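Comment thread on ticket #2218

A.B. wrote:
> Attaching the input chain for the structure job we discussed in standup.
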Amino acid sequence: MRPLPLKWRVSLLVGAAVLVGMGFIAVTAYVEMKDSLTAATDRTLGAMTGSVLALLDSPSEEGTTEDDVRAIVGDTTRRQGPAYRVWFDGARGDLVASRQHADLLTAASLAQRQPPPEGERTFFGVGQGGEQYRAVWARAAVGRGTANVAIALSRHPAIDALEDFQGRLLYAGGAVGLLTVAVTTLLVGIGLRPIGRTARALGAVTDRNVGEAQIESGDTPAELEPFVGAVTEMLGRLARALEEQKRFVSDASHELRTPLSVARSTIDAARVKDRTPGQYRKALDDVREDLERMGDMVEDLLVMARLDETPEGRGAEEFDLSELAEELAGAFGRGGRLTLELQPARVRGDRAQVRRLLSNLLDNALRHGPEGGTVSICVATPQAGVAEVRVHDAGGGIPPEALTHLFDRFYRTDQSRTRATGGVGLGLSIARETARRHGGDITVASTPEAGTTFSVRLPAV
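C.D. wrote:
> Ran it. Output below, let me know if you need it in another format.
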């Protein structure tokens, strides 16, 4: 099942939040109105009991009659009209006046309640089902003794008002909720238009125009600017990666084409006329060298491909760079041309990759350094958390303008290099990529006076 679009999810969430807020307000308003209506009824009942008690305290010559009480309480002939009972304390409980509705204020029902203290009144509810009443019982000392006045008013008008108010709240809440969802959906849709434009712009990006793709950001909301900025940066990185890939494929094709052309020319020259066995052997040796050069290039290309595809951290182990340097010195030998200056320097990473890195640097130094000159390997920890390997030879023949390009793929300081000089321009690129994948880097310094030094820095453990 597909999830709802973002604008609908946001709209429904906002609508739900508004409904919850309105529900809280509606409940609060309902309770306040109910309390207000009850308080108004209680004030009316209090005024009625006060008037009846005042009438009892100052009776007319004929005495207080049923008509006098009814004149204060109101019309009692209606089905839901007020009910009352007026009497004096005493053995007989002298009854002055009484009007009942469904036995609301009978002597028996009032006897079940605690009488209020003299001079005070008690409010309570009576009735059941659709006959709900609010009643008051007041006691006070008058001329004849202690008078009791109980009056009950129907709560039907208040209940009708509450039901009408409740209905209005429900209608208003529903209308506001629907309006909120509709307006929020419209506003969210307008706010998400930059994302739609970005999506259309991304849909038009191909490998041919990725470097020219532009994401409009003139009216982008502040909240979406990081998204648009990240997409723009991603397109820039993708353009650079594709450009580098194209350049790499072009360079690789050119480098592979050269030995193939040389090998083909050697074979064609050998076939022009009959040759001596020695001449054929020389031609085969030349072709073999060209094939070996292509094999070295393919192997380097495979190494670079594996570096790009292998997740960082895979095959990591802890090892000592000094032990690795001693191992390489023993493998290269070269008649005492190598000197070692070693300190313990432990790092963590892929030992085979780091070994290839140092092997490339050592091979370059021995191959391109001065004839018969020495090559030194120094392993140290110049500062806390840093392990450094320096490979130095006495040659300083790298032009200054070439130092910034030395680690580029297929770059060689001597573009006319022959088979004797060897190399295809990938060794230093592999070395730099390996160093960076291990959290470090590699630099080079070269002058005729001081020679050439490659420095590899890796995080120490």
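A.B. wrote:
> Thanks. Noting for the ticket: The chain is about 50% helix and 20% strand.
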